[in-house]
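Example complex used in Figure S2.
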Amino acid sequence: MTVPSCLAPAPAPTNETELFYRASALAGFNLAELAQGAGWVLPANLKRDKGWIGVLLERYLGASAGSKPVQDFADIGVELKTIPVDRNGWPLETTFVCVAPLTGNSGVTWETSHVRYKLARVLWIPVEGERGMPLAERRVGSPLLWSPDAEEEAQLRQDWEELMDLIVLGQVEHITARHGEVLQLRPKAANGRALTAAVGEQGQPILTLPRGFYLKKAFTGHLLARHFMVQS
DNA sequence: GACTGATCATAT
DNA sequence: ATATGATCAGTC
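Predicted assembly (232 residues):
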């Protein structure tokens, strides 16, 4: 295997097949090799570069850069998610989906939600992520193109509706990460001083920590396991 | 050792 | 401040 080169960001893929083919070609390489191919310097660790792997793979795969609230491959309707896994292919972290809207939610529905939009089609790329393993040695795994099946969508919908109900009813500050079976709501902020508008218990405007929707590990673990036939 | 709450970098 | 990319780390 010759080490891939990506000295300039790849062009956007034209279709899913092309995207999947590109992602498959990265499987087996470690992060030192992929960083070199991109002309990037490997950080010592991810403490101050938490999104580094995701951005590196975006470059190789031709994801549209930027901070727009759209899928990574909007033209073909695919979202890219790198997911850190242990030696058995089991997730080491929850998966961030999107920021949760805390105001202006009257009349919102699952069908038009950002969670459903982002998760409609996902290219999962597992990456070895055990903290004791040097970044340079961590290998990229085989990709998986996934859409939620009927049961998964029903679970996501139920959790989303329950969490959104609580947000609309002014209970956001009483929601913990324990709510939801597969989808949870947790802080998503630069730090504890970052505040955003929300609805209080009496319906009044309040300021609270920004929140995000995250997929719990059991959910992503099972969808990966179902495909790769590893233990679950 | 797992999990929840907290946090880091960057672009707009 | 809010969006993107996520992982860290204290506490249970």
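Chain A has a mean pLDDT of 96. Chain A has one domain: 16-230.
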